Amino acid sequence: MSEVAEVLSAWNRIVRWLEANAPVSAQALRPPATNEDIDRLNEYLGFEIPDVLDAWLRMNNGSTAKDSTAPISGGGMALISHAGSLIFPDGEVFLGCEEIMRRHDEYLHIASSIDDEDYWKRSWIPVVEKSDAPYGFLLDAERRGESAPVLRFGEGDYPEVCLPSLSGLLCPIADVLEHGEAAGSLMAYRRATVTDGRIEWAG
Question: Where is the Knr4/Smi1-like domain (predicted)?
Answer without folding.
Answer: 32-168
